[in-house]
Amino acid sequence: MLATPEQTDELVDLFRSGGQRLEFKKNAYIIHPGEVPSGVFYIESGSVKAYDITRYGEENLLIIRKDHEVLPLIWALTGQERSVIYKALAPTVIWRISRQHFLDSMHAKPELYAPLLDMAIEMYRLHSERILNLEYRTVRERLVSFLLTIAQRFGESDGQKVHITVPLRHQDIASSINATRETTSRELSTLERHGFISSRQSLITLLDEKALEEHLGS
Length: 218
What we know:
Blueprint: H1 5-18, E1 20-24, E2 29-31, E3 40-45, E4 47-53, E5 59-66, E6 70-71, H2 73-78, E7 85-88, E8 92-97, H3 99-108, H4 113-133, H5 139-154, E9 155-158, E10 161-164, H6 170-176, H7 181-193, E11 197-200, E12 203-206, H8 209-217
Antiparallel strand pairs: 1-8, 2-7, 3-6, 3-8, 4-5, 4-7, 9-10, 10-12, 11-12
Helix pairs in contact: 4-5, 5-8, 6-7
């Protein structure tokens, strides 16, 4: 990580001292379809799904943003708009400041770019992993790779088990691994039947992370 704890705290204080605190219920829009962002957002708690709509009218999951991250980061820094929709996956608390206030603060204190660079690097890493994941030939391999990757970001360990703390719809997983929802659902059921995972109300638990890693490498 490039940022010091002090720089990270200062970035957070920028939002908390000069921003508006907003609370979103699960499935509430933070940025609606086609909407220009109303400001720059800092996620204090919760999780946010970023997605777009394909030409076929299907949701395409891009990334899940978590607490202590800033969004939409590209727009905040460059002003370039993309047709990205942001929706709360769980009850979420966010602080919002205007983009102009954000940019003025960055210019006044360039050291605040360090934590933002850390976030940008992490986003680049995740998108790179998604591209590499698509090199696997079978849907099952891509699915296992996806689950292992998201468990690193949102997993809570409990012995051999790892509980993924964000809800994952089958369509979201399917769009991430370039598969149909039907095939993805079938492969998830197969993994569950063989004791690799368990699933309840869109929350997935890896029952044996090491076994899944070995399954991917076999």
